[in-house]
Design brief:
Blueprint: H1 4-15, H2 22-39, H3 48-64, H4 77-82, H5 116-127
Helix pairs in contact: 1-2, 1-3, 2-3
């Protein structure tokens, strides 16, 4: 029989946008839940269920972000949890980087949220 905690850890894995390295990911998630009390002082006295809920909220934001939907550029789940990337500033995930470039309204955006044409202009200036 699977315990409630095991099923919640499994649910965190299922929420992650990239499904690869499941066994390593599940171990990393379990360690992250345990480690979270040391990483976030406000969760030091929290039980595992509350820590899992906190991770779930961070994971939901990441899964909806540009980096969470970057295909092969999205980190493996074990990497994301082992490196405590849930503590990263969500702006780094592209959560708040919305909209298009005013100079290039029909240009696509790079994975990190920059206008592709602006990026290429900078790249060509740097290499000239």
């Amino acid at each position: 029989m699977v315990s409630l905690e095991e099923s919640e850890i499994q649910n965190l894995y299922e929420m992650y946008p990239r499904k690869i390295g499941k066994r390593s990911a599940l171990r990393a998630i379990e360690k992250a839940v345990t480690r979270l009390g040391k990483e976030k002082p406000e969760l030091r006295d929290a039980d595992k269920k509350l820590r899992i809920e906190w991770l779930s909220e961070k994971l939901r934001a990441f899964a909806e972000s540009k980096m969470g939907n970057a295909g092969e550029f999205t980190p493996y789940p074990a990497t994301w949890f082992n490196q405590s990337r849930y503590l990263d500033d969500p702006k780094e995930w592209g959560v708040e980087k919305k909209g298009k470039c005013a100079r290039h309204p029909f240009s696509g955006l790079t994975v990190w949220g920059s206008c592709w044409d602006c990026y290429m202009e900078r790249f060509s200036q740097d290499s000239a």
